[in-house]
Each structure stands twice: as structure tokens, then as C-alpha cells.
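Give me the fold.
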Amino acid sequence: MACNTRIVRTRSADPWWNLAVEEYLLEQVSQGETILYLWQNDNAVLIGRNQNPCRECRTELLENDGGKLARRLSGGGTVYQDLGNLNFTFITGSGAFNPDKQLEVVLEAVNGLGIAAEKGGVCGLTANGRKFSDSAFCFRKDNACHHGTIYVSTDIDKLSEYLQIAAGDVTEKDTNQACSHVVNLSELKPDLNVEVLADALTEAFRKAYASTAQVENCLRKCSESRAALEELYCKYSSWAWRYGKAVEFDKNIENIFPWGSLEIGFRLEDGIVTDAVVYSNAMDADYIEGLSVLLKGCKFNSECLADRISAAPIPGSMGADVMTDDIVKWLRDMDF
């Protein structure tokens, strides 16, 4: 039986506009509907919702070269994107959220092009042992978004040039080694281009969802949605959204956990936390935001902070209990 589906393709290469379209679709999707949204960005770095841009990206270099920094809704890490990359987004009601099925659509498309691909890690896809795709998730009320990258012919040199490894003392060699684990699909299939892959993804989506949907090259009722999209564009292009508030912290603590990095900056007054900003590449962006709010007003003492977090568990979607346990143990072990 055919599902209620849409396939949307934007020809814009502006990351701020494309993210605005994505959020608009996330807000508008109906229960029982599944949308495949295909989009590309040109010379852009996309950071996760709770990441510190200055720790993840050489922002001045990127912008001097005409590139754009963008912050997405989901958690996870930083990616570089150009026109050799194709982004996919699956948007559904939360009851139909099925990332395994959605990744199978991507695998079906890539394998159908003659490239042996498989899942690698929690959200990644690999070919010949190297990653060509990574994905992340976010939720809005009763709706869910699963989006990811597919490297077809991305400029890996620029990826290495603009991105930096945030945690610990790193060298240029470390960054180059991280980039060596990335592969363009065109390296494995030289005649492949983004348009061919987009067509393959469209057909794999139709097959998986018994869909007869045609590709929409713009949003339906585009004139009616324009005002909402312009408002979202203003958000995504704003300094406040991309860089966050400029705060000089009195204390910083940071650590690496199995689920991601964590950096907490504290503003203090008479030993009390008056403000806290939490940076992380953890997939569960909602948990990280909740953690930041929870710490305000607490005494700046490792035991007090740990007690506050353990006594008021923070709602999250992906392993929140594990994250809480790890952070509480870390704080108690620090003993400040």
C-alpha cells in the first residue's frame, strides 16, 4: 500500500536557506507523512546545535574564503560541505521515526550503483572501511528529523583546512589522519556525480515507502510559506544563532565521553553559578540544552553539581540515563 510521501529538492546552495526549509518542513509534516528532502550547500561548515564554533572550525579562514558557518538543529559533530556533497533529510511524525529503515534507503541507493557500502558506527555509512556518510537526529514536538551527508566528490583538502579537532592538544597530523578516514564515492566509482546519486536515492525511497511521489523542486504553495521561511532564514543567518552569546567564563571544565565531548563554561558570583554554557557534539541535543539550564543557581562545587544533575534527571531521547551517570561520576571524581 502506498504511503503518504513527499520528495522535495531545493536548488539553493545557501546553507542558511536550506536549513530554514528543513525546519519549515519539520514543523509542517503531518502525522503519517514521510518527506525525503535533498539539498546541497556550497563551501559551508555545519556545526551541531551545542557546539562551540571557534573550537570546531577556522571560522575566520572560512569566511575570508567566502564560505558560510551554519548551525543546525541536531546534535552531533561538525561537517564541511560543498557541491560535491549531497544532504538527505527524512522528516516524519515521531511515531514513524525509523532511522534504520532510512539508512537502508541510502544503502540501497549506493549499493545499487555498484558500490559495496555498509553501516559503520552508530550513524555512519562506510565503503572500503572509510566513512562516506554520517547522520544526526532532532525532534520537534511530535515530529522527527533524520539528516545526513553523502560525500560524492567533496574537496577533502578544504575539509582538512577548515575543520579542527577541538578536544585536547592536536597537531596538523591528527587532523589529516581524521580526514584520511573519509572517502568520496567518486573515488570508488569515477563516473558518479551528485545528480546520479540523487536519482538513485529518490528511487530507493519510492521503493522502500511504496511511494509514487514526484520530485518537488520547490515547496508547495511557496508564496504562502515565504514569510515563515524568511523568518527562519533570519534565524539561521544571525550571529546569535551561529556563534551564540559572547561570554567570558570564570571556570571551564571539559572531558571526552564514549557518547561525545563535553565542555562547560561557568560564570560565578560568590561561588554560585549565575550562568552556564554547555558545548558538546553529543547526538542528544535536547539533553545538552537541559543540562545548561539545570546548572544555573547551583553552588560551584563538584559534589553539589553532581547532586543537582542526579536529583533532577534531564529528559533526552538517546541514552540520557547513561549520559547522566557518566557526568555525575566525572564530577564526583574531580573533587573541586
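The longest strand covers residues 130-140.
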